[in-house]
# Entry
Amino acid sequence: MSATESATRHPSSGGDGADMSRLSHFIPFDGLSESHLAEIRDQVTVQRLPAGRLLFKRGQASDKAWFLVDGELDLIDAGYQVRPFAADDDENYLAVDNYPRHTVNAITREPATLYGIDRDKLDLLMAWTQAPDLLPEDDSDDRDWMDALLTSGLFAQVPPAKLHALFVKFRPREVGLGEVVVEEGEPGDVFYVIKRGKAMVTRAAPAGTHTLAALSAGRFFGEDALISDQPRNATVTMTSDGELMCLDKSDFQAILQASVIRRISEDALDTLVLEGERAVVLVDVRLPMESRHDTIPGARNLPLNELRQRARGLEREFLYILCAEGRRSELGAYILSEAGLDALVLDRGDNENRDTQNEEHAEATAPR
# Structure
């Protein structure tokens, strides 16, 4: 059991839940609507600690991100340098030491309150808040899902007399943040419409997971496997609590196309730079505050929420390497590729199949 598990309490209807107005001062929650904040409230844990209590220790693996909403911590690095960190600190806009393995010890200097959320769910939310160009123009959670289908063109050829009979066949399904609705490789027999909530579409690859799209109320998914009688070609994960409307295979018509995001290993990138045959630009798509907080040497900061607009001014003969960890780099590569630029995601993990990856890289970077 970690240092925090014994003192962690989950939100409840009795008043112990997170105050989402407090959490909205932090990234990425400041970019979520009130309805989206309400949807994820039950996913947030509340941690209240007295003075002198260890929150986490340096080197400890962590699957949860912590946000300091009240009180003060001492952050102690490997050289035993102590940095006081207060809830009202101007630098307190991100999760505290948000790394897969903590780089500091965190001890409460005075009684403190922290809000926690699973790091993987936080990553989904970070990608969601910075992907506005992947969303439909009308991003209202209150839009009528039936009207959304009718205006999407999906059922444009369905005779009006059959529409009512078709809609009554949909059945509702409640879903939660982080829930996998469809999984790549699994058989598919249901078509889904998001009535309430948000989701991300991802696809597995030898070196990681590719993010393909962000979905909100009124968007639909799952039809490709039903039409082709092939396994699901992507995974859809909820980025909020919500409700889906489900329709059996025989009752729908649609076609879905997906983009493929390519990757490059660190070794292959080093070789490419040393050979100097092509100009390479490292791109960090995180927010400017994050980039300043955790600088990636040599990277150009092009925030994801500005990337589509700024892509028009980028040199087309350059190769762009999305180098920040997480789903946002995958979304950045998707956006740059859509703009006609050559973009790859840097794989920072261990590579067990380097030869295969280098072959993929050689093909990806060959002159077009």
User: Anything to note?
Assistant: Residues 327-338 form the longest helix (12 residues). The longest strand covers residues 105-118. The chain has eleven helices and 19 strands. The chain has a mean pLDDT of 79.
